[in-house]
Specification:
Strand order of the largest sheet: 2-1-3-4-6-5-7
Number of domains: 1
Structural class: alpha/beta
Largest sheet: 7 strands, mixed
Order of helices and strands: HEEHEHHEHHEHEHHEH
Radius of gyration: 18 Å
CATH class: Alpha Beta
């Protein structure tokens, strides 16, 4: 049976107009790029580009604003929630989000994120958890798994002397000011689709003035984990999800009505 070509080319790849087309500084196999695309797709679908301001602090995502075609600013290490608070209060009609890593948010920025959430600031937080300090050399982070080898825990993280991983989604869910706190993963297409829905609800929480919203995304760091991209994806699935269970930890009643 002969196969005929379509009458016109079929579009098989789509780039959200809220992203720039160009080279990336991220390592091969890093899932920051996936997270960026999901954020851009949600902002496009919600028609928020003209109102959006993104904030990237120090870390692997320090240049995140170079990939988005809307306003972006850079904050000092860990201080993105404080900057987001100021911007949102001065410009309450804007949609403000922070894009933070685990070393940034759960370590040096723990004070800022806890108090922003406790105050119920109307901001959205995208939290990338790859269980390590990525940009500064692969050191142990507050989210590093027990037994995980890093440059500052060469024999593996020992909870007796180095403590246990901090679970941010569960921690923030205990605060009254939080409208939405969830954890998803970027290790396969099924979970990526779920992550996008969560990001949409996190922005809906802000647009609807419901309170603080945070989406934690389990991500890869093949370079510092010393793995191939495929090995890193499997490591997220097999190890990270056991320490950081996926799911919704707090969902405002109005957001439950929007879930699809």
């Amino acid at each position: 049976m002969a196969v005929t070509a379509p009458s016109r080319p079929l579009k098989v790849v789509y780039r959200p107009p809220e992203t720039y087309l160009g080279p990336t500084h991220y390592c091969p196999g890093c899932t920051h790029g996936i997270a960026h695309r999901l954020v851009a797709e949600v902002i496009e679908e919600m028609g928020l580009a003209e109102r959006t301001i993104g904030i990237a602090p120090v870390g692997c995502a320090v240049l995140a604003y170079e990939y988005f075609d809307f306003d972006g600013v850079e904050a000092a290490h860990g201080r993105a929630p404080a900057m987001a608070t100021g911007i949102k209060r001065v410009l309450p009609d804007r949609v403000v989000f922070t894009y933070q890593g685990d070393g940034d948010m759960a370590s040096i920025g723990m004070g800022e994120i806890i108090h922003a959430a406790g105050r119920g600031e109307r901001i959205t937080v995208i939290f990338i958890n790859n269980a390590i300090y990525g940009m500064t050399g692969g050191q142990m982070a507050p989210t590093t798994l027990p037994g995980q080898v890093t440059t500052s825990s060469p024999y593996g993280r020992d909870p007796r002397s180095q403590g246990y991983p901090i679970r941010m989604a569960e921690l923030l869910a205990t605060l009254d000011g939080v409208a939405y706190s969830v954890r998803h993963s970027l290790h396969d297409p099924t979970h990526i689709r779920k992550a996008k829905k969560a990001i949409r609800l996190a922005f809906e929480a802000q647009v609807r003035d419901l309170g603080f919203a945070m989406v934690e995304l389990l991500s890869t760091c093949p370079t510092n984990w010393k793995m191939t991209p495929i090995e890193a994806m499997n490591w997220v699935r097999d190890h990270m999800t056991t320490v950081f269970p996926l799911g919704e930890y707090k969902v405002h009643p109005e957001l439950r009505k929007l879930r699809v």
